[in-house]
User: Fold this.
Amino acid sequence: MTKHNPYNFLPLQPTGRNETNTANTYAPEDMIKIYEQQFLIQVPEEELTEFLPALKAFYDIDNHTLDVSAIIFDAIADSAIIYNHKIKVGDYQILGELIEEAIEYDEDNKSDESAESEEIQAYTLECQRTFFINDVEIPYHFNLFIYGDGYSTLTKKETVLEKMYWFVRGRFEEDLLDDTEDNDSLESINAQLASLGIREMDLTTVDEIISYVEGSIIDDPMVDKLNKLLDDAE
Assistant:
């Protein structure tokens, strides 16, 4: 007998029943899918109160199962849920070679002796990190500026994810940036997301996603690769 499935829930095979025989049990990877569907399935506003009971009925689970699915997601999932969007970090790419840069010292602020003896090695490097929003692949290009023990990044403005970055930065640094009028509007960004099959975002969602992106563009494997490139350049 076919189960009633008004929201196109994923068909998943239970592994059995819980100890009290009140709910189905599922494999951890399927628990993650159940958790994600709570946020990623688009539901008309007038049906929001019906959605969760329908999900629990379809999988024959209870509130405790949903709580456990959230714990499993946080523990082992390779993605994050930000409001109604799933975002996942993909691979990085080094798109060019290290370019050595000359740092000019401020003659008015440098000391008589230290400025001549101190040299900070600086390099720029063109990079890309791939992200997935609701399983749609979106590249994120940036130039990496490495100086001494520190670094900074300069994001391009080509893909919709890059435009989201400049939209967020322009809102918070409007007085510091001269070209904020060139940034895409939220309406324009949502139109570009829609063309990729990604549901629209509000201001808070865009802010949170860009915060996640900025915290994820450089990871430990990329740092190891950068260190090797720097060692080879010295």
User: Anything to note?
Assistant: The two ends are 69 Å apart (CA to CA). The mean pLDDT is 90.
